[in-house]
Structures are given as C-alpha cells and as structure tokens.
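Table 4 source record.
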Amino acid sequence: MDNSRIPKSLFYGKLKEGNRRVGRPCLRFKDYLKSNLKKCQINFCAWETDSQNRSSWRNKCHAAVRAFETGRTANLKKKRAARKARTGLHTHLPRQGVRDAHPS
C-alpha cells in the first residue's frame, strides 16, 4: 500500500498530540495464568489436557503450590539471614563532639 494512502497513515502514523500510557500494557488473564503455572513448574502447553482428569489435576496443583510455597519461604529466610548478617558489620561508635540528648 502506498504511504500516502489515508488508511495506512491512520494505522501506522503517529499522533501529533497525546501520549501513550507509561509502563507496560495491562496483562490478560492468559498472561497471569501462564506466569503462575511457570512459577509452580507446571507445563503451560499441556495444562488443558492435564486438567481433563480433575482429581489428578487437583493433586498436581496442590503439590506444585506446596513446593512453590516451600521454596518461596526458604528464599525469604535466606534473604532475611543475609540482611541480618549485613547489619552486624556496622559498629555504633559515638561521634566526637556530639552530646547525648538525655545524659545519664
């Protein structure tokens, strides 16, 4: 299609005024589903066929969520321990020339 045609200029042209929203586009339900299945290490391509057998699907989901939560809490504990170890490196020495607000 020629560049001077109106439909092409409407669809592919830039607006003179106005702005796009800042940030990434809003996610669809499918995008959230895919990210949650990835976090739980469930195959996204085969989840529809796996879900046909409801009892095995429920067991698989519960086991995956339990494993995810265990890993998540272990990661949080590791981060907290690293943060606490980092605060022990500082020494709290009084600065010279600074008086206490409440002398004892």
